[in-house]
Amino acid sequence: MCVFFCLFIHQFIFILIAGVESNPNIIQTPPTANLGERESVTFHCNLEDGEMGSYYMYWYRQHQSRAPEFIYREGDHYGQGFGERFVAKLESSNNKFSLHIKNALIEDSAIYYCAARALCLNYWGLQY
Question: How far separated are the first and last CA of the chain, in Å rounded?
Fold first, then answer.
């Protein structure tokens, strides 16, 4: 018996710099994915109207009626329990960011979010 479930993908962006006039546009594909257990899927996140090199990029997922779970932040920082079947890849020079889920399980059925947080520079020009 094959069990199917849906993965949904949404987008959001954190902007932490006062006075930003326009937010970059995040495009995510595919918008939904229907797959069976143990199948794989890759979600893609492209950034338009901005450069990924100016942002920290993140992946989150959210199950219905629950808080979002942190999956990944660029620099190979994975949330607890996400480092084995979840693989994120950032190509900031091409404004591309992907999340590959290997051997999907029913509990992976959720909404997946790509997020960007603007890099901030302190008084001395250091990123934080």
Answer: 49
